[in-house]
Design brief:
Length: about 130
């Protein structure tokens, strides 16, 4: 029997959840699903340039687990690009911890540090809602 999946810290909110190749109609299109943890691993390692050890610490997983997640993500993205498939990013991940420090303050619009220091915005010091 497999162990239960550990919760992973996800701090990535993409602006688009679906990408498809141009010139192929939706009815003829195969798609792959990229999980939230896979997208987060791509963001941390490839976009932010973090080493696997540092990226794993940010996601609250072991380095070995991070390595497996990113290999899975790279394989899915390569399959989509090479074989002309659409990429659908999962909008939910059952084992994720959203980073509360990246919430947006409704008063000033600041995204830096909201959720820290007893739910007060660092910029305008207003109280925030969970």
């Amino acid at each position: 029997m497999a162990r239960p999946v550990k919760k992973r810290k996800i701090n990535c909110n993409p602006t688009s959840y679906y990408f498809k190749p141009r010139g192929i109609s939706l009815s003829d299109l195969n798609e792959i699903e990229l999980a939230q943890d896979e997208l987060e691993s791509i963001r941390l390692a490839d976009l932010n340039g973090l080493f696997q050890e540092d990226a794993a610490a940010k996601m609250l997983v072991s380095r070995a687990t991070f390595g497996r997640i990113i290999v899975r993500a790279h394989k899915k993205i390569a399959d989509a690009i090479i074989n002309g498939k659409a990429i659908r990013i999962s909008e939910s991940f059952p084992h994720s911890i959203k980073d509360k420090s990246r919430q947006t303050d409704s008063n000033c619009g600041s995204r830096s540090g909201v959720g820290l220091r007893k739910n007060k915005c660092k910029k305008c010091l207003s109280s925030t809602k969970e």
